[in-house]
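Budget justification, computational time. The allocation requested in the original proposal was used primarily to generate structure tokens for proteins on the priority list. As evidence of use, we reproduce two of the resulting records. The first is shown immediately below.
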Amino acid sequence: MERETYIVGAGGIGGHIVSNLNLYNLISAKIYFLDDDVEKLHTHHCGIKVAGNIDTLLQTSKEIDVIIAIANPIVKSAIVMKLKKNNKIQFPSLIANNSWFSEGVSLGEGCIIYPNCSINYGSILGDFVLLNMNCTIGHHTNIANCSSLYPSVSTGGNTKILDNVEIGIGSSIIQNITIGKNAVIGAGSVVINDVIGNSSVVGVPAKELKKEKNKE
């Protein structure tokens, strides 16, 4: 019997995947969307039915493949924790067939690698990492679980990106930089210093955005 594939998130990433099934070797897959937005339930996205919400998967007793097509790392991480409770769910990684991987690159489960990405030797990508279009990853870069890099992000060699990091379009990170857990880097930033966890930085060079004090 044909194995079913469920894409969590009837949005931009999911739309890209189903519009380019040949890039991800999914031509023969039986695919459905799932989304917690009640307005999308039982509609169609890019010609594919939105069959239910995420809770639909928690009760399944058959082996299925699930692709988490969510960009926001915090939301993505919460969904992963929820779905990991069902050991019948497998999380394949999707790699566009025109991306480039050097020898010696390690990739976890549930990753999505868009077209025209390049990943240099010695790099390690954790689970559920997203690399959007045209990302360039320098040698011995470590990208931890659930982090999302948006189009045209570049990292120098020996970069460390910890869990749940979000890096905006066109940002550049020089070599030997560490980006802390849950950090956010704004679009077009140039990162030349380490970024502490749970902070947001933006600019050229990137600087931390200061939180406004609560006004009485």
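The second record produced under the same allocation is shown here.
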Amino acid sequence: MATLKEIAAESGFSIATVSRVLNEDDTLNVPESTRELIIETAGRLNYKTKTERKRDEAAKKRGLHKLSSVGIVEMLSVGEQIEDAYYMYLKNNVEKVCMEEEIEAVPMQYDEGLSEYRNMGRPVDGIIAIGQFSEDRISAMRKRTEKIVFVDSSPDEQKYCSIKTNYETGVRQGVDYLVRQGHVNIAFVGPENSRDSKAVTAPEDRRRIFKAITREYGNKVHPETIDVTGTARNATENITKFIIGDNNLRPDEEKVTALFTYNEATALGAIKAVQNSGLRVPEDISVLGYNDTVLASYMQPPITGIHIYMDEMARAAVEALTKLINGYVNIPFTTLIPTTLKERGSIRKKQ
């Protein structure tokens, strides 16, 4: 296992800075890119914090059976992940935790002809399923093992353990922040419907919650929605039409000044749409993102967004599967991982 000195030498930062970042010191004021580089370096060198080492020791004392291999099942294809990188980063975090714990991560592909998941001939202790899956796909997983933990969905809380992000907390953080910045004409940008935890078409969660929370503000906030499919290209097209069309014809006091986008791809499309319309982000229109992957801090401008702790979701999933296999789970449980808002450069306080 690497030392702080080795991580400092590899990353190019002082031992003190490395230590404070890895111990999540909230008082440390460094760029987000610095934190990400240090954390990435620590992970690559297999560093473990004191908390992680204590957790490992506690597990040994409890006599937990260590997982040897975990099947990874993904909802999206590689091509679909290019459009929305969130699930790719979520999978990468699960694989990273498995690597840290010396667990083999086995990718499992669905065979349409046989209606089953193939695991390359390698046995798996259990499955971590990332995304939303139909009942047929879930049945196919159960043919391999009953030990399944779902990440980012909860198809049946009475049957399966699941790890989810708390959308209600995240959307509320975003709306409240925009209102504090003086924005009252806010448009939510996202699809009307999406797949629910059973891969069935249903109202999109973030959009539904956005409407409910903005209603709580009464006449103080004037919300609306812009329909997009969730890809950057479609977002650019539809938002551009809105800005140069309907929004351009309104009096200044009624114009939308902030876009609450439902994922990072949509945020990128929104920024391009504003720029294509001859306007600027954030001077003319502010853009709030959601998911907040590593890409957000490298955009121009860097995207302020709701940060999902994908690393904690991944760690919670592996821990849940370990408990499940060791018989520590009497009833299935759902873990909600909180979110936080990361301030960068895509939102401006309205004068």
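A brief technical remark on that second record: The first helix runs from residue 4 to 11.
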